[in-house]
Specification:
7-stranded parallel beta sheet; alpha/beta; two-stranded antiparallel sheet; 10 helices
Length: 378
């Protein structure tokens, strides 16, 4: 998965009575960009999942072929006793920030025949807020606007800092801070906006799983900066829960991912509350639960470490052909919640807002109603 700095896209097409609202009318199909950063576009990865006893090597796509995906149900696994005793410690309901592309579209398209479906099934759900542009002068106030909004309602916001230098290995989502020193300073400003209420931080999607393109020295420097970021975020707000990048079940083998995560500080409670997976991807929740538990087992650290999973678009699983860009036939996944009933799984989150295209059925960086409708009605 990869991301373009301040772009988000949504795509989709639908048939029948809604055919008049196809790509030919994209200008009215797309919402304008929100004031806060939207979740970026994700593009294909060069990484090939490493062979392991629990997963075979798959295609270069972030959505591997069925033979590369695990079929074992996570409920069939027997976690250690200390894991069985662990329960989710984040309380409260998740926060829906009022500034988003889907809400912009809903407010301005009340007469659209897709309105009711998109409004009820997507716009009403809480979703993460991305900070994908390097704007050190404004990031504190922008983060504070989200966290204070959640605190005022007694709800838990989800924020995504996404400005690590060299992100996406110079691909579609290149951008971010000009260097690690600048990134460290940006994180300090980001942390200053976290407030004192509960908040979930999804720290830098792809920053660990996609580190293969870096040299050993560059990787070590990045991981040191990520470990520092975790410490800074948690020191600024002890109620912040910080999760590190575990990729997804079709990517790196759990042992390899855990070794990198350990270098990035994810095993230390001073930096981390665990890992996240499946951001902007399509792998089933069952596959992700199994993957995340294996990563956590290999990672070590305290039993309090858990995982959150992006379930925004994984209702029908990943496509068998490995298509990553707005693949047809996908659907919404489980609604966002902090009560999963699964040991070591702290939450199901909508990190990628459904309806923001990957760039094939809509323009990168915009909400496209046709794609949102497809996801919400499949």
């Amino acid at each position: 998965m990869v991301v373009t700095a301040s772009l988000v896209v949504v795509a989709g097409a639908f048939a029948g009575v809604l055919a008049a609202f196809d790509d030919g009318r994209r200008a009215s199909d797309e919402a304008g960009p929100p004031e806060v950063s939207a979740s970026p576009r994700l593009a294909p990865l060069p990484a090939v999942p490493s062979p392991s006893p629990t997963a075979t090597a798959g295609s270069a796509s972030p959505s591997p072929s069925p033979s590369a995906r695990r079929t074992q149900s996570p409920r069939a696994m027997k976690p250690e006793k200390k894991q069985q005793e662990r329960t989710t410690t984040v309380a409260g309901r998740l926060y829906r920030h009022p500034d988003s592309q889907v809400l912009d579209w809903v407010r301005s398209h009340s007469g659209d025949p897709r309105h009711a479906v998109i409004a009820s099934r997507i716009a009403e759900q809480p979703a993460a807020v991305w900070f994908a542009d390097y704007s050190p002068q404004t990031v504190t106030a922008r983060v504070a606007a989200v966290t204070s909004g959640g605190a005022a309602l007694g709800r838990v916001p989800v924020v995504v800092p996404y400005a690590i230098p060299g992100r996406d290995c110079g691909g579609h989502s290149q951008g971010g801070a000009p260097g690690l020193d600048a990134y460290d300073a940006w994180i300090d400003r980001f942390a200053a906006g976290l407030g004192s209420g509960e908040v979930i931080v999804v720290l830098e999607p792809d920053s660990v799983a996609q580190a293969e393109c870096l040299s050993a020295g560059e990787r070590a420097d990045r991981f040191a900066s990520l470990a520092r970021a975790g410490r800074v975020l948690k020191a600024a707000n002890p109620r912040a829960r910080v999760y590190f990048d575990a990729g997804h079940s079709g990517w790196n083998a759990p042992g390899k991912q855990a070794a990198w995560l350990r270098q990035a500080g994810a095993a230390s409670p001073e930096s981390s509350d665990g890992v996240f997976s499946n951001v902007s991807n399509f792998h089933t929740t069952a596959d992700e639960i199994a993957h995340d538990r294996r990563v956590l087992d290999a990672l070590g650290g305290p039993a309090s470490l858990g995982a959150v999973i992006d379930t925004s678009r994984n209702g029908n699983g990943a496509p068998a052909d490995g298509e990553w860009c707005d693949p047809a036939g996908r659907g919404l996944g489980r609604s966002p919640t902090l009560s999963t009933g699964e040991p070591r799984i702290d939450g199901y989150l909508w990190v990628k807002l459904p309806g923001e295209s990957d760039g094939c059925k809509g323009r990168p960086g915009t909400f496209t109603a046709s794609y949102a409708y497809d996801l919400a009605s499949s």
